[in-house]
Amino acid sequence: MLSFIMLIGISAITLAQTDEEAVRATANDYIEGTSNGDIPRIKRAFTETAALYGVNPDGSMRYIPIAKYVTYFKPNVKNDRRGKIVAVDIVNNAANVKIEILSQGWKYTDFLLLLKLKEGWKIINKSYTRVKAN
Description:
Blueprint: H1 2-36, H2 39-45, E1 46-55, E2 61-65, H3 66-70, E3 82-91, E4 94-103, E5 106-117, E6 120-132
Parallel strand pairs: 1-6
Antiparallel strand pairs: 1-2, 3-4, 4-5, 5-6
Helix pairs in contact: 1-2
């Protein structure tokens, strides 16, 4: 009986590690895709209905559909972007990932909301802000 309980515990840990690895892989698809102009990789990370949200200089909300965002990147052209995953939080089939990106004198902080869908973990929303990099 104790062996069975330990097996269930190990399976739960393995599942959690697998989900975290999958979430990190999706976040890395976004980071690497945008850094390298890898359009298919960017599209793979997001759902087709995903959107990006930020704040305009006048304080109003900035909304960018993912289809428009993808056009900001030229296919196979490297960009001055260095990103890293800062934090990952997963509960069941939802996850939140915090990413920092340094690009052209700016430090962007992205908050990605992901859902575990039948095709895997996908970004459904990205909220971001930026400050001058030190």
